[in-house]
Write a structure and sequence with these properties.
Strand content: 5-15%
Number of domains: 2
Order of helices and strands: HHEEEHHH
Largest sheet: 3 strands, mixed
Distance between the termini: 60 Å
CATH architecture of the largest domain: 2-Layer Sandwich
Number of strands: 3
Length: 163
C-alpha cells in the first residue's frame, strides 16, 4: 500500500513538473518571437534621452547611437557596443529583458553608452581596452553606478561582429 501511494505521489510530481516545463518553454518561445512591449520600448527611449542629456551636460556634444535589441547575442552577454568603420552601435540582448528589465535599463544601457562614448571621444586603444579608468569615469558621469559588475578587464571586442 505504501509503495503504491509513493508511486502515485511521484507520478503527480512528474506530471506537474512536465506541465511547468511546457508552460515555461511556451512563455520563453512567445517572448522570443514577439516584439518587446511598447512600455519597455518607451522605457528604453526615456533612458536613452536621459543619457543623451547627461552626455550633453558633461561633454557638450549631441550624440545618437542606434540601440538594437537582438536575439542574436550569446546568452552570457547583456549588451555589446560595436565600433566598425566609424559607426557605433549598441546591442542589447533581448533574452535578458525577460530576466531583469530594470537591470537592463538602469545598468546595462548606461554601461554600453559609456563604451559608445569612449569610441566617440576616441579614448580607446588595444592598450586601454574594455573597462579602463577613462571608461569608468565616463560610466559614472552617465550615472552607471554599478558599471563595474559582471565585467572583466580587456574584454573589448575589436574586429567583426556577426550582428
Amino acid at each position: 500500500m505504501f509503495i503504491h501511494r509513493l508511486k502515485r505521489y511521484f507520478q503527480i510530481i512528474i506530471f506537474v513538473s512536465i506541465c511547468f516545463l511546457i508552460y515555461s518553454w511556451y512563455n520563453n518561445y512567445q517572448f522570443s518571437k514577439q516584439e518587446l512591449k511598447t512600455s519597455i520600448i518607451n522605457q528604453i527611449k526615456n533612458k536613452e534621452q536621459a543619457l543623451k542629456n547627461l552626455v550633453y551636460t558633461h561633454y557638450k556634444i549631441h550624440v545618437g547611437f542606434p540601440i538594437i535589441i537582438s536575439n542574436e547575442l550569446p546568452s552570457n552577454l547583456f549588451g555589446l557596443t560595436s565600433y566598425s568603420k566609424g559607426e557605433i552601435k549598441i546591442y542589447l540582448n533581448k533574452k535578458r529583458f525577460q530576466e531583469s528589465l530594470d537591470y537592463m535599463i538602469d545598468d546595462v544601457l548606461p554601461h554600453e553608452y559609456a563604451h559608445a562614448m569612449i569610441f566617440k571621444l576616441k579614448l580607446f586603444s588595444k592598450k586601454k581596452a574594455g573597462h579602463s579608468k577613462e571608461w569608468q569615469r565616463v560610466c559614472k558621469k552617465l550615472q552607471g553606478l554599478r558599471c563595474e559588475r559582471f565585467v572583466k578587464n580587456n574584454d573589448i571586442v575589436f574586429g567583426k561582429t556577426n550582428f
